[in-house]
Amino acid sequence: MNALLPASFRKPGWVLFSNFSILGIILLFFQIEPEWLDVTLFAVATSELLGPDLWFTFTQTNIATELTATGIIIGGLMLAFSRRETEDEYITRIRLESLVWAVYANYIVLLFAIWFVFSSPFFTVMIINMFTVLLIFIMRFEWVMFRLSREGSHE
């Protein structure tokens, strides 16, 4: 598959994905916003508390969550879509099956949240749900590859 990244992206992907995921959990539960990350950014859409929606404007914000989400996504993509040293049709099939699993699981979580989680906790679930496709894909793919390596050759 030509759409895969080089195998050398895998280790930096692990570093970014794991470190920014830990940081994301810390930010989610402790709402830490360092003052040195307060910046003015261009916003396509924003709103003030109980105010009207504003379009194509500049806004003052803390970019801790934006940086963290970007690190999780870039690291996750590097990890998930880096070529293996020996990439063959069987591994391609495992990738596809893992991706299907991840999409199903993502939407099962979303459906559950739509029906059983409300108000602020729903927003928290939606934040987490942004990353579940990558997370579940990586977990399942790595688990299957680990099991495969324990069994020996897959041919």
Any overview of this molecule?
This protein is an alpha+beta fold. It folds into 2 domains: 1-83, no CATH class; 86-155, no CATH class. Helices cover 64% and strands 13% of the residues. It has helices at residues 10-30, 64-80, 89-116, 119-151, and strands spanning 38-47, 53-62. A two-stranded antiparallel ribbon has the order 1-2. A hairpin with a 5-residue loop joins strand 1 and strand 2.
Task: Give a nutshell description of this structure.
With 155 residues, the chain is α+β, with helices and mostly antiparallel strands. 64% of the residues lie in helices and 13% in strands. The chain folds into 2 domains: 1-83, no CATH class; 86-155, no CATH class.
User: How would you classify the helix and strand content by structural class?
Assistant: alpha+beta
One letter per element, helices H and strands E, the order comes to HEEHHH
- Distance between the ends: 19 Å
Task: Pick out the low-confidence regions.
Answer: none
Q: From the alpha-carbon coordinates, what is the Rg to the nearest angstrom?
A: 19 Å
Give the strand order, joined by hyphens, for the main sheet. Answer: 1-2
The total number of structural domains is 2
> How many distinct helices?
4
Shape category: globular
User: How big a fraction of the residues is strand?
Assistant: 5-15%
| Largest sheet composition | 2 strands, antiparallel
Secondary structure: number of strands: 2
Q: Helical amount among residues, as a percent range?
A: 55-70%
Global mean pLDDT: 92
